[in-house]
Amino acid sequence: MILLLKVMDAENQKAECGREHHRKAMLFHDAEKKLLQLEEKHRHAIVKARPYFEMKTQCDQMLATQKERVEFLQQAVKETKRNYATSLRTLEEISNQIHQQRRDYGMEKYILKMCKTTIFFFL
């Protein structure tokens, strides 16, 4: 009994799908017929507009290429700025080290001078 119900249900679904397919096929056929009528009616306008759309396609491709180039250059600028900032930090560290060495050297000279003065003072 259950199997019979399943078979009948499947047949009903199959019939409904067949009807739906037929409706969709008729709609498609009508749309295709309408397309052909419109193409025939507007053939001159289509031929006249074709160069515009071909040019538009070329321009869109050129625009996409230029956008890619701009993105590439923006990445290159970011990388260059990052390298520049790193170089500045390195230079600042070198400068600080040089200043510290000069201060240390100056302090050593001062200490040596004081030692010599003190030695002469006691002599």
Give a quick summary of the entry.
The protein has helices spanning 2-41, 43-122. By secondary structure, it is mostly helical.
Question: How does this model look, in words?
Answer:
It is a single chain. The protein has one domain (2-89). It is built from two helices and no strands. It has helices spanning 2-41, 43-122. The model has no long low-confidence stretch (mean pLDDT 90).
**Which parts are unreliable, with pLDDT below 50 for 5 consecutive residues or more?**
none
Number of strands: 0
Rg (CA only): 43 Å
Shape: elongated
The total count of helices amounts to: 2
Indicate the mean pLDDT. 90
Measure the end-to-end span: 131 Å
Please state roughly what percent of the residues sit in beta strands, choosing from under 5%, 5-15%, 15-25%, 25-35%, 35-45% or over 45%.
under 5%
Characterize the biggest β-sheet: none
